Amino acid sequence: MCKPGHAGQVPGPMGLADLWGHHWAGILLAASLLTMWSPPAAAQLTLAAGPLNITQELLARPTISISQDTAIEQRGQVTLSCDTKNANVTIHWFANDIPLVFHERMLLSTDGKKLTILTVRREDSGTYKCKAEGFHQVQSSDPTFLTVNYGPDPFEIKLDSGVSSGEVVEVLEGSTVTFSVETQSYPPAVHSWFLNNTSAPFSTTRTFTIQAMSTEHEGVYRCLASNTATHLLRLGALEVRVLEMLTKPSVVSPSLNLVENASSVTLTCQTSHKGAGVLWFLRGQALLPSQHLVLSADNRSLVIHGLQRDDTGPYECEVWNWGSQARSEPLTLTISYGPDQMAITSRAASGVVSTIKAELNSSLTLQCQAESQPGAKFHWTIEHSTTVYMGEQLIIGALTWEHQGIYNCTASNPLTQLARSASVLVRVVAPRSSLSARVIAGIAVGALTVAVLSAGLGCFVCKRNARRFSRKKAEDPIQEGATPTSVEAPRAESCSTPGWPSLSLDWPRPMYATSPEPQGQVGVKKGLPPDPPEQFYEKDPPSTTPRNYSHGPRKPLPKVALDPLVPTLPKGNIESNYEVLVNPEHNLYCQINP
């Protein structure tokens, strides 16, 4: 018998039994250890009497299916199914690789393997997957794609230039304009463009451009968008107005004969630009409408109610759009009025007076004034005369007494058919004395002084002659002895008498011995300029030794007589101020020759 381990020996049956015995000993040891560690029942292993056989189930990959992969928005229902060979697995859904968020339009089966979209919308379009989870494994299906057709939605036509004015877009003449639309549609919509009522489209693209816009391109543009998948059509429209380069308008008045308070007038802003706005200007400022100035609804007419003389303007109208503007030439209205504010003035009196006093033989100019448009026509009439004088001035070269009276001036306006008149009283007075009160007083004082000196000199001569006569009588014996029968008292003795009647010398009494009272003294208005001096004459005072001296009685010289015809002039008659004429350039006048 060979011993174990020796080469070339083959173990017998008993050797195999020993080998299995050692194997079972190891198993029993392991079993005892497992008995001591008691894991949960689900984790306990079942030991068989035979060799160990441990197996684990693999999770199969799910498959996804869809009822229809193309749907029309709001018209279809789509069902997605997730199939798996494994039981007791959990199904998860993904859309576009993101966990699906369920909402009221979705329905999920109890086992989670069927997903139904009740009403399809465009946001439901995309890729879908389902994943199965079980036995600590996750398996994902292949993706499936859902296509949702929709549109076209309502859209608007857009222009890259222009200004919207309500439902109309205004573009400038000569500008370049690009038309475009943005349509929401899947598949993309097909576009057709039409102008006004044409039946054939002029463009089938989403955008198009017009170079150099003109009035021929004005109108309503329509764009028709269609979807062959949804069989839907949408139409967009836009009215385009081409704004011409504005030209200057004009303000027109239908009537030229305008009369104050008698008529109204309508001013019209004439322009060929229909789409342009209109503004009005009065005296360069924006016109403010009122009950007196009324604008029409389109601002193209201005009505002036109850014309006044200050409504002459000037008036302007301006046409404008957002690209340009143009203003008319100013229009000034001619409004007839008057005559009114009648007045008669003269150089002989300042301001407007009702009575004019002028000196005899002086000149007189009467001026008639009136406010009137056009200028009034004047004619003069004189009291107690049938002569009519034409012109605004009436000139009298040299006044006579016959020129006294009432002068009437009438102003008339042929357009307003109105007339007014005014009158003035002309009084002719005698020339005033050239001697003023001071001159007369000076003459009186001078005359009194001369008289006093003359009287003193006369007394002196008288006394000297008396002494000489007495001395001669004493030396003449004949005269001393003779007793005259009748001897007159010496005249020299009477010189001692201070009164004028007692003078023995029969000299003439001085005429300036007493200051005469001035007769007809002219009253002078204080503060007025003195009248120009006139020539006057003054008599020389008597000499102390008159030429024709005699001792006989003489009549005194006559006193200087002042003009008794000089009247007391009224106040304000001597002023020479002349009121400035309203129309000094007029030379229309009439002259009355004396």
From TrEMBL:
<dbReference type="InterPro" id="IPR007110">
    <property type="entry name" value="Ig-like_dom"/>
</dbReference>
<feature type="domain" description="Ig-like">
    <location>
        <begin position="249"/>
        <end position="334"/>
    </location>
</feature>
<keyword id="KW-0732">Signal</keyword>
<dbReference type="Pfam" id="PF13927">
    <property type="entry name" value="Ig_3"/>
</dbReference>
<dbReference type="InterPro" id="IPR052598">
    <property type="entry name" value="IgSF_CEA-related"/>
</dbReference>
<keyword id="KW-0812">Transmembrane</keyword>
<keyword id="KW-0393">Immunoglobulin domain</keyword>
<comment type="similarity">
    <text>Belongs to the immunoglobulin superfamily. CEA family.</text>
</comment>
<dbReference type="GO" id="GO:0009986">
    <property type="term" value="C:cell surface"/>
</dbReference>
<dbReference type="GO" id="GO:0007157">
    <property type="term" value="P:heterophilic cell-cell adhesion via plasma membrane cell adhesion molecules"/>
</dbReference>
<protein>
    <submittedName>
        <fullName>CEA cell adhesion molecule 20</fullName>
    </submittedName>
</protein>
<dbReference type="InterPro" id="IPR003599">
    <property type="entry name" value="Ig_sub"/>
</dbReference>
<feature type="transmembrane region" description="Helical">
    <location>
        <begin position="439"/>
        <end position="462"/>
    </location>
</feature>
<feature type="domain" description="Ig-like">
    <location>
        <begin position="339"/>
        <end position="425"/>
    </location>
</feature>
<feature type="domain" description="Ig-like">
    <location>
        <begin position="152"/>
        <end position="234"/>
    </location>
</feature>
<feature type="domain" description="Ig-like">
    <location>
        <begin position="62"/>
        <end position="147"/>
    </location>
</feature>
<dbReference type="InterPro" id="IPR036179">
    <property type="entry name" value="Ig-like_dom_sf"/>
</dbReference>
<keyword id="KW-1133">Transmembrane helix</keyword>
<keyword id="KW-0325">Glycoprotein</keyword>
<keyword id="KW-0472">Membrane</keyword>
<dbReference type="InterPro" id="IPR013783">
    <property type="entry name" value="Ig-like_fold"/>
</dbReference>
<dbReference type="InterPro" id="IPR003598">
    <property type="entry name" value="Ig_sub2"/>
</dbReference>
<keyword id="KW-1015">Disulfide bond</keyword>
<feature type="region of interest" description="Disordered">
    <location>
        <begin position="471"/>
        <end position="560"/>
    </location>
</feature>
